[in-house]
Design brief:
Layout: E1 2-3, E2 9-12, E3 15-20, E4 24-29, H1 33-36, E5 45-46, E6 49-53, E7 59-62, E8 65-66, E9 80-85, E10 89-95, E11 100-104, H2 106-125, H3 128-162, E12 167-171, H4 176-180, H5 186-194, H6 197-210, E13 214-218, E14 238-239, E15 242-244, E16 251-253, H7 254-275
Parallel strand pairs: 9-12, 12-13
Antiparallel strand pairs: 1-6, 2-3, 3-4, 5-8, 6-7, 9-10, 10-11, 14-15, 15-16
Helix pairs in contact: 2-3, 3-6
């Protein structure tokens, strides 16, 4: 159930007042108020929020707040960072000066495999009780993914701030399933399709903008097959987790190579705009 601020709910000090169907307005104490109160003042604004029923039968009010953030200009960008998302590593980040950070996915991948096996076992039973368990399992898995994506995106943005990054480059994954399903084995296809990559990117996007970092989406075509040193493109360049360029012999972790290519494309987008006259350059002459 979605509630509108002022019409359906109001916030007063450490309580929320909600309009109910049977009892009119009712007041409820806000959990973790000491943490939440930072969002109860400018520049944050209360937005449409939800009342959600959890698996244990309890109802929770999920308060949503928003703020307007002035998006930085790519014209002012100096340091870029590419982020490659995947299965072996949930994310790999690489900056213009080749500082990098890996965000491991091994343990998470194993947990996803456990969920997959549990799902297959329950689906094979086909009973009503199995279907109920499947539904609970799906919710648990989604919450797990969301929590991981929040943690990973927070760490990515923290690394970007640490390295004074101006722009984070991400791949445009709009048609990622259609473009990759035919190239993956069944098990890989499940892992690839079921992980919320777009959610991870959206978390990176809004967290980056909160700290004044611009986010650009680039064409993902051949980022994994292209040598970031000589630009040679070949699927033979990928040797499992390693990237080995068949043209120049350059070797690197495959995901890191992809992240560097994304960084290159993000940086190129600025130069393309500049060459088209979309970016202005201010020159100051010393006349003394």
């Amino acid at each position: 159930m979605t509630l509108s601020y002022k019409r359906d709910y109001t916030i007063t000090e450490d309580s929320v007042s909600i309009t109910t169907f049977s009892s009119g307005r009712k007041n409820y104490k806000i959990q973790n108020y000491d943490y939440a109160k930072q969002y109860f003042k400018e520049p944050w604004k209360f937005a449409a929020s939800k009342v959600v029923k959890h698996d244990n039968g309890d109802y929770y009010f999920h308060l949503t707040v928003s703020q307007e953030i002035e998006e930085p200009s790519i014209e002012e960008a100096s340091t870029f960072m590419g982020v490659d998302v995947g299965i072996n590593y949930l994310a790999v980040a690489s900056t213009t000066d080749k500082k990098c950070k890996f965000f491991a996915g091994g343990e998470i991948k194993n947990k996803r495999n456990i969920y997959s096996k549990m799902r297959a076992r329950l689906q094979s039973k086909g009973t009503l009780s199995a279907k109920r368990v499947l539904k609970r399992l799906a919710g648990k898995e989604q919450r797990f993914m969301k929590d991981v994506n929040h943690c990973i995106s927070k760490a990515i943005v923290k690394f970007a701030v640490q390295e004074k990054v101006s722009v984070i480059g991400l791949e445009d994954l709009t048609d990622i399933r259609e473009n990759t399903n035919g190239k993956l084995r069944k098990k890989q296809r499940y892992l690839h399709n079921s992980w919320a990559f777009r959610q991870l990117q959206s978390f990176v996007d809004y967290k980056a903008k909160q700290v004044g970092i611009l986010v650009e989406y680039v064409n993902p075509e051949y980022t994994s097959q292209t040598c970031n040193r000589c630009n040679h493109i070949s699927k033979n360049n990928i040797k499992g987790l390693r990237f080995h360029c068949e043209a120049c012999g350059f070797e690197l972790n495959a995901d890191l190579n992809g992240a560097r290519n994304i960084e290159h494309r993000t940086r190129d987008s600025r130069y393309i705009l500049e060459s088209q006259g979309c970016l202005s350059t201010i020159h100051t002459d010393n006349l003394s």
